Amino acid sequence: MPCKPAISSHSLGRAWSHSLPTKLDAAASHSLSLELFHEDLVYLAATFPGGPTPSNQLLAAQTIRSLCSARNISIISLQPFMHYEGLRDRELHEARIREMRDLWIPLARALGTRVIAVPSSFLGEEECGGDEGVIVRDLRELADLGVAAASSSSDDDDGKGEGEGDIIFAYEALCWGTHISTWEQSWEIVQKVSRSNFQICFDTFNLAGKVFADPMRPGGIKKNAEEAMEATLRRILERVDVRRIAYIQVVDAERLSTPLIKGHEFYHEDQPARMSWSRNCRLFYGEEDRGAYLPVYAILKTLLVDLGFEGYVSAEVFHRDLGKDDRSVPEEFAQRAKRSWEKIVEDFGLERGGEEKVAVVEEGAAGRSAGGVVDRFPAVEGAAARAQL
């Protein structure tokens, strides 16, 4: 399918400050599909008698599906199933497997989505191990549950071919993950799990946040960042099968005026700096006027043009303003998401195809070079200049 825009439900306002119907209205008014953040489902279930029990969560999922259907919103995924792979406590592992089988897969079915997003664990070393064999076996177990769920369910599956009703697991490397923190590591895991319904999710923030950026450094950019980024993008083209990409998340981030170390307003002793940065400072693609500086253009060119990805392109923004009790937040963030999507369409010629799309991108790249900025990494030149101040 051609690329389509989506947004995570939490990126329209956090559940403790903004009602889901209000956020859905904002998404619908800008033609955005939805990644459903489990937090929103739990908050809705908590309003039912008895609180957020599994049965009430299932009822909430059915309600959300109806609310979305009434607004012509597609739910593209349920996320995030966190802190699963590599658990040292194997009894806890078995409990999480039961949670997936008995709760999360039924929730996905009730929502009308086939995709469950699984981020890499960032539990401490004492809780999750880095043995690749264990991680692969754990995640393969999830994938096999997704196939078993398809074979045991008749809902919406009549007439579908082999694999078409499977639950798809989208595995994403968080740039502060304990053992899996790069796209290369997550892609290697995807290959070793070796199940068609276990796929990779590329997140531009997490990719650039590991390879290119470091919020603890002045200027926010790692040494030799441009060379490292060029190399990692080449490896994407050399190694990744575009058919194994579930969807992509496109976000940028704010350059901090001072390093995110002890004394910074976003510093938390109990969490990695990249996580604190992510939770407070993500921005939409194209928001350089708000301080965005990651090489998202280069990543998108690789994924959308060079690799030829087609599918959902979702804005997963975390930001300090999303929890504010300000009723303008859902509409403001939906508007920004739509503007960002329109810029992506323009920058990468998504309404065109083949050679015509490539020509649009090459023309844009030439314009960037003529403007005196670094072609694929326009943030680098400005950062270098600031570092001299």
Structural notes for this entry:
- The protein has 389 residues and is α/β, with parallel strands linked by helices.
- It has a domain at 204-265 and 274-318 and 352-389.
- It has 13 helices and 10 strands.
- The protein has helices at 20-29, 38-45, 54-70, 90-111, 132-152, 183-193, 204-211, 225-239, 273-281, 296-306, 329-348, 354-370, 378-387, and strands at 4-8, 33-37, 75-79, 115-119, 168-172, 198-203, 245-249, 252-253, 282-283, 312-315.
- An 8-stranded parallel sheet has the order 3-2-1-10-7-6-5-4. A two-stranded antiparallel ribbon has the order 8-9.
- The longest helix has 22 residues, at 90-111.
- The radius of gyration is 20 Å and the shape is globular.
- Mean pLDDT is 91; it is low at 369-375 and 379-389.
- InterPro entries: IolE/XylAMocC-like (IPR050312), Xyl_isomerase-like_sf (IPR036237), Xyl_isomerase-like_TIM-brl (IPR013022).
- Pfam families: AP_endonuc_2 (PF01261).
- This is Xylose isomerase-like protein.
